[in-house]
């Protein structure tokens, strides 16, 4: 009697609306992680030649932090479930969602950690910060104080992570509630802060869905690029190592 061994093919195919073929553009060139129009050439070639190593099995950890009630949970729910709840239900500790993408033909997943903004749950939430590849700091574009607290959220998140190895995003939510004049005022401050902390700035609305998909596609794409580049570098140094050991073997 033969036994069927479950394999990776058991996973359902990636949803058609999670397929990324082009590099999604930044929100504002003034505050962007990078402003290129296309995916890195080396990354594209590696994907075409299926030289992406373990990236296809990778799950990048993304943490979402920020003041209470700024809209972190709504942002994740709009993207992952296409749902919006107008009633506030505080996150207790943490929650997480998995999202599977296909970037340049390679499977790639994000694990989105939704953390609590309320002071009394912060202690539990911060134990989940470690190992993040991406940190998303959320503020409410109608609440200047929540932008003012962004630096503190970043500082706390970086205590658990290597600052040189994370990608940062500063995200203003509830854009639907602000008038153009109010919005442009806070945008100036937010862009300035994003430049200072080297984060990419985005503004969006989970109620209308404006920019939500674009934002997460950008997050997934930039995290993917970094992972593929690291894989290329790793295999490059492996080759160099191989050559050296061969040389030693023949005493050259
Ligand atoms: N109008 C509008 N309301 C929003 C938007 N995003 C969130 N809200 C509302 O803001 C409130 C708080 O949203 P949550 O997503 O629960 O906030 P949170 O940041 O997860 O809060 P904590 O879990 O306590 O840290 C809820 O009443 C939401 O309906 C938005 O884009 N537009
Ligand atoms: Mg929440």
From TrEMBL:
Compartments where located: Cell projection, Cilium; Cytoplasm, Cytoskeleton, Microtubule organizing center, Centrosome, Centriole; Cytoplasmic vesicle, Phagosome membrane; Golgi apparatus
Reaction(s) the record says it catalyses: GTP + H2O = GDP + phosphate + H(+)
GO molecular function ontology, one term from the record: metal ion binding
Cofactor(s) recorded in Swiss-Prot or TrEMBL: Mg(2+)
Highest taxon, organism lineage: Eukaryota
EC id: 3.6.5.2
Any Pfam family matching the protein: Ras
Membrane topology type: Lipid-anchor
BP-aspect Gene Ontology terms: cell projection organization; protein transport
Record-linked InterPro entries: P-loop_NTPase, Rab, Small_GTP-bd, Small_GTPase
Keyword tags: Acetylation, Cell projection, Cilium biogenesis/degradation, Cytoplasm, Cytoplasmic vesicle, Cytoskeleton, Golgi apparatus, GTP-binding, Hydrolase, Lipoprotein, Magnesium, Membrane, Metal-binding, Nucleotide-binding, Phosphoprotein, Prenylation, Protein transport, Transport
Gene3D superfamilies, sorted: P-loop containing nucleotide triphosphate hydrolases
A GO cellular component annotation in the UniProt record: cilium
Quaternary structure (record): Interacts with RILP. The GTP-bound form interacts with REP15.
Family indicated by similarity: Belongs to the small GTPase superfamily. Rab family.
PANTHER family linked to this entry: RAS-RELATED PROTEIN RAB
Protein name (record): Ras-related protein Rab-34
